[in-house]
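Recap from last week: sequence in, structure out.
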Amino acid sequence: MFEIVGLTINKLPVFQMLDRYLQFMKHLKSITEEFVNYVLGSESSKGNCFGMCYTLSLFLEKKGIENLIKSVLVNNHDHHYILTLKNNEEIIIDPTIQQFYTHMPLVFIGKKPINYGTLNSFDLKYVFKFWGSPFSQL
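Predicted structure tokens:
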């Protein structure tokens, strides 16, 4: 039994494994782009990385795609959030990559760009500093 990016494959020939992998990645890109388009519309993704990653994470989990939210420094100074697949953290999903690179697709799925630092579990205290304001008024 083999496991490739969230798919369990029982001793299939290599071309069938590759075909399933490509189908999965195409499906992942399609549903992720549809979600991001729906949420952002024509708005900029700048400053929305955690909110987008959190809601996208829940959406993907509901679709049976296990994932993790990770934090990373971009260009050694921009604190940023992305997703990884739970059983293959080498594949990242960055639904707000356009805030750094306007020439990139709406959603980036692949190996992390060279200027992205080490992936870390996200720090809830750091997130709450920016996202906790509405809750402090309750």
